Amino acid sequence: MYRTHTCGELNISNANTKVVLSGWIQRSRDLGGMTFIDLRDRYGITQLAFNMDTNSALCEQARKLGREFVIQVEGTVAERHSKNLKIPTGEIEIIVDKIIILNKSEIPPFTIEEDTDGGEEIRMKYRYLDLRRTPMLNALKLRHKMAQETRKYLSNEEFMEVETPVLIKSTPEGARDFVVPSRMNPGEFYALPQSPQTFKQLLMVGGYDRYFQIVKCFRDEDLRADRQPEFTQIDCEMAFVEQEDVLNTFEGLIKHMFRVVMNVELEGPFPRMSYDEAMSKYGNDKPDIRFGMKIRDLSDVAKGKGFVVFDNSEFVGGINANGCAEYSRKQLDELTKFVTKPQVGAKGLVWIKYNEDGTFKSTIDKFFTEEDFKLWAAKFNAKPGDLILILAGAKAQTLSALGTLRLEMGSLLNLLDKKVFAPLWVVDFPLLEWDENAKRFFAMHHPFTSPKPEDIEKLDSNPGDVRANAYDMVINGVEVGGGSIRIHDQKLQQKMFKTLGFSDEDAEAQFGFLMNAFKYGAPPHGGIAFGFDRLVSLFAGLDSIRDVIAFPKNNNGRDIMIDSPSKVAKEALDELNLELKKKEK
Amino acid sequence: MYRTHTCGELNISNANTKVVLSGWIQRSRDLGGMTFIDLRDRYGITQLAFNMDTNSALCEQARKLGREFVIQVEGTVAERHSKNLKIPTGEIEIIVDKIIILNKSEIPPFTIEEDTDGGEEIRMKYRYLDLRRTPMLNALKLRHKMAQETRKYLSNEEFMEVETPVLIKSTPEGARDFVVPSRMNPGEFYALPQSPQTFKQLLMVGGYDRYFQIVKCFRDEDLRADRQPEFTQIDCEMAFVEQEDVLNTFEGLIKHMFRVVMNVELEGPFPRMSYDEAMSKYGNDKPDIRFGMKIRDLSDVAKGKGFVVFDNSEFVGGINANGCAEYSRKQLDELTKFVTKPQVGAKGLVWIKYNEDGTFKSTIDKFFTEEDFKLWAAKFNAKPGDLILILAGAKAQTLSALGTLRLEMGSLLNLLDKKVFAPLWVVDFPLLEWDENAKRFFAMHHPFTSPKPEDIEKLDSNPGDVRANAYDMVINGVEVGGGSIRIHDQKLQQKMFKTLGFSDEDAEAQFGFLMNAFKYGAPPHGGIAFGFDRLVSLFAGLDSIRDVIAFPKNNNGRDIMIDSPSKVAKEALDELNLELKKKEK
Question: Which domains does chain B have, with CATH numbers?
Fold first, then answer.
């Protein structure tokens, strides 16, 4: 063993003890008579002291050690003269007798400190150095703890962790599947799972009753918006349950996690909000309910008054920003610029200042009366001093733009407190989504989601109106998990495939084994999957999932540390019965 | 919720309680006046009772229910007349008021009982039904528990579970790598890891100090023996340790597992045996030390006496089978047949019976005297009544054949008790193995294994004699884990690559990132990986790892349930810039 103690555990009670420590040199300070070195390991930092008067040779040796050298020291614990009460080891230092250099270090390409000077590219190339920084270490410690607590909680609730295969079946539908050529079966391919969906359903058919797995999933797609080609899910399934049972069970999991990991007590049941309400009041299906500022529909009062922009719009709606009536022209111009960005997509912004003196000032004064504005203000419960922001256009797009504007205002008004956690369930999702390009319905979640029993009859007459037994858990505007009650009836599943435009042959080829399984006594079942990376980053207060993954890939799906993906030798492809296509000229 | 209780929890204390249960029909018995149904779920079996006299309609309904139907029943808990004290619910039954059929079942293709009538092929095709059988359920429960306990133990020992990537770098050396074409980077490939070896070493460079992961690994090779293309490892690494620290730590893990999972206390430190001793005394590097019957070298006493077979052999050795002197001609012929099978590879078998009366009888009586045999017997500590079995030939092959014969005799003599667990460490492995075909050395473990410091100087002069800081944990003749202290010095690692015949360019292309990492303060480190599937099957007393994997593949790497691997559409290959090679005619 290269040490008797770690760099995080010695304190005043160890004074006068002979110890051996090993670690990295965080920094050293040469004060002439004395040299101090901060020795770092995963557990903390301990100060090493060298005295020019009592041991000049050793002190000279210490001065030559560079940052990030790995050393082992023998010495005696002593009380410090100037104490640092911010760290557990801050009352002591080690009077060193002997130094052994275990490994040298070149000067790192960026500083290994809390806040580094390295850009993301270089930090990813030298990830093993970036991982030494406290924020990365803390994020991965948090991740470890969250994984442990998830397993502990679910195991106590009788969930069994079962490993499902990584090499599964490639399907024509799986346009975003990674495929894996098989050497033993040349010309044939496995696929990597986008989720263990069918396997967990088969486990329910197999009577496993409660399953979970913290599991890697894979998706080969453009990595816009903070995604990774491989990501981790907390994947769960239960038999003999209805939607309410699933929601209660996993509300329990998330409350447990907040309690033991964050010391945050989430009181009472999580609010439930229908998809329709989320879309109409928040402009998206993952509402951030840390703050109000709900969207109001003004169509009935704003249209038909001669303002052609409103009159020609399907929908007019707005939000009320408390206390923003004093916004300057410049601030309002910036908001206009914001909403007219292509990503937001509004044509323009109408604002109405509800002045402190009770009067109104607006961009559309000449089309509407003070009385009109009073009526509108009442719809928002607006008070003098508020600012009403209005968008108009096609309904879906305008609601979406208002949702984005609402979040922007929330951010500007500091309403997005990272220490506040506002969870809710979004429920009653539509079962199907119409795709205008493909001219057919797609499953909004996946083809195994069960319709609400009372809506099943509409599957033929009005498929777009059928609601699903599907649910998302949303926290602070982040969709952390989602799931559904599944279809367990073979006939209904067949009908569903038909509605989704599968031929019988396609359905059989892709999901025959599942349909077959349903013939032998499939229990009612349902489940949920949480995005573990996302959940950890939410808990950590970090914006990117890359910061909670030890070895992430960049936005092009590349691991720039190991330089992967990369070419493979022709011989290897030969063995797989494959060749690269010639580039067309 | 479809139930108030599970089928495993009701007992006499619940008498007269109204309950709702859901589950599968295990079997039903129609006794004329009464019909009984065993209702099964993951937690147990509860008897349902239907009385023709009191509710004939319901009883008629119950009689029509087939095996494996999924039903929900409402009823009242009542004390049974004829109790079954073998199961926890055996004192009660449910007097049923109402049956709801949740799902029907066709007649399963094999009987879902403890011992099924289904062959392995059909059981794998209908794996979801096979999983309903108690032995499968128990194996997966055990697996879950072992995973949980591994994580608990290692977390308490300050190990952090860190997820390493599944999509890594393909290397020319990785002939058995699965490769994964990247859609975003056409013409380039990821590889699936055979182990997280380099990543865990990078975590040590990153200061993580103690890492573990229960992780899927992949190998694309013929699945002779009992292998799977994807398998699970308990992968571990520690910094600032020497071999002794690693052995002690993981002895602790395995002892903990035996204690809490099997209720078996493994006393004292595990024995350590050198590779040389294992090879010379047991004929292989994973000795089963549940029994003795060690191999003895007879070369010095058996050669030079005129028996040409011995005289022309590099090596003569044998084992002593206690109490087998009475073996019949037929039994001895069978042993001869066994050792001359191609897999064992001996040319023939020489036997010497040490008769109860102190005389000897042997196949080679005419070449050796009674005095010779006495001397040989003394080498084995043989007693009258024993049977000495001797093989001769090239040393390595003969030792190996003797090792196999020893295990066969152990099996015949019932010395391989599955309830006895005999762990040991095999240590001091050679660092390198000479490959006669390739005319070069290969790393016996992998190229990151450190040589013993005292042997480093032999790396140039006599590489085959260099021993490694490598170790295997062996239990009952099964290698359950193996690992090594790693090289942490960049120069030594470079020398190692050179010894293994890597050009500088190849070493750089494949492991440049690791060599680079070693420049920035790599600590001394080492680790181990346990084959989790193997460990579970050992604990479960099962011979095949397929029996402890929920959805295994067959010997051709096929999942016959989902019919994978399979063809993919040309369009999918186009996107990957790949095409299947035309078959040559």
Answer: 12-103 (2.40.50.140), 138-272+424-548 (3.30.930.10), 291-416 (3.30.1360.30)
Contacts of B187 in chain A (CB under 8 A): 567, 580
In the numeric block, which tokens belong to residue B284?
Answer: 């292989």
Residue B160 has its nearest CB partner, among A144, A164, A556, at A144
Provide the number of CB pairs (under 8 Å) joining chain A to chain B. Answer: 358
Main-chain dihedrals φ then ψ at residue A63, nearest 5 degrees: -65, -25
**DSSP string computed for A318-352:** EEEETT-TT--HHHHHHHHHHHTSTTT--S--EEE
Query: In this complex, do A179 and B155 lie within 8 Å of one another by their Cβ atoms?
Result: no
- HSE-up of A187 (CA within 13 Å, CB side)? 4
Residue A281 CB contacts under 8 Å (≥ 6 apart), including other chains:
A287, A294, A295
User: What number of helices (H) and strands (E) belong to chain A?
Assistant: 17, 24
The Cα of B42 is separated from the nearest Cα of chain A by a number of Å equal to 6
> Chain A partners of B521 at a C-beta cutoff of 8 Å?
24, 68-70, 103-105
CB contact under 8 A, B180 and A192: yes
Strand positions, DSSP E, A52-151: 70-79, 92-103
Tokens of B141: 């429960």
C-alpha–C-alpha distance, residues B171 and B190, integer Å: 9
Task: Please say if the pLDDT value at position B100 is more than 50.
Answer: yes
| Residue of A6, A40, A124, A128 to mutate, testing the B interface (most B Cβ within 10 Å of its Cβ) | A128
CA angle A126, A3, A40 (to 5 degrees): 40
Q: How far is CA A5 from CA A19, A39, A90, in A?
A: 7, 12, 15
Asked if A178 reaches chain B (Cβ–Cβ under 8 Å), the answer is yes
Cβ neighbours of residue B536 closer than 8 Å, sequence gap 6 or more: B139, B142, B143, B146, B545, B548
Amino acid occupying residue A151:
R
Q: How far is CA B482 from CA A242, A510, B285, in A?
A: 46, 40, 12
Above 70 in pLDDT, residue B321?
A: yes
CA dist A227 and A206 (Å) reads: 33
Full DSSP string of B278-317:
HHHHHSSSS--TTS----EE-HHHHTTSS-HHHHT-SEEE
Among A212, A244, A209, A242, CA closest to A485: A242
Among A residues 244-303, those touching chain B with beta carbons less than 8 Å apart: 244-245
Q: Which residues of B touch A141 (CB under 8 A)?
A: 160
> Is-contact B433 B300, C-beta < 8 A?
no
Q: Give the C-alpha separation, A52 to A32, whole Å.
A: 8
Which of A:216-235 have CB within 8 Å of B? 216, 218, 220-223, 229-230, 232
- At A375-423, the pLDDT tens digits run 999 999 999 999 999 999 999 999 999 999 999 999 999 999 999 999 9
Q: What's the pTM value of the predicted model, to 2 decimals?
A: 0.95
**pLDDT > 70 in chain A, percent:** 98
- Dihedral over Cα of A238, A244, A247, A253: its sign: negative
Closest CA to B449 of B228, B195, B278, B249: B195
| CB of A166 less than 8 A from some CB of B | yes
Instruction: Kindly report the number of other CB atoms within 10 A of residue A374's CB atom.
Output: 13
Shortest CA distance from A128: residue in chain B = B206
Longest distance between any two alpha carbons in chain B, whole Å: 93
Q: Smallest Cβ distance to A70: which of B69, B187, B523? A: B523
* Predicted local distance difference test score (pLDDT) of residue B585: 43
Q: Is the pLDDT of residue A173 over 70?
A: no
Calculate the alpha carbon distances from A269 to A149, A251, A510 in Å: 21, 8, 39
**Does residue B530 surpass a pLDDT of 60?**
yes
Which tokens in the block code for residue A451? 């319709």
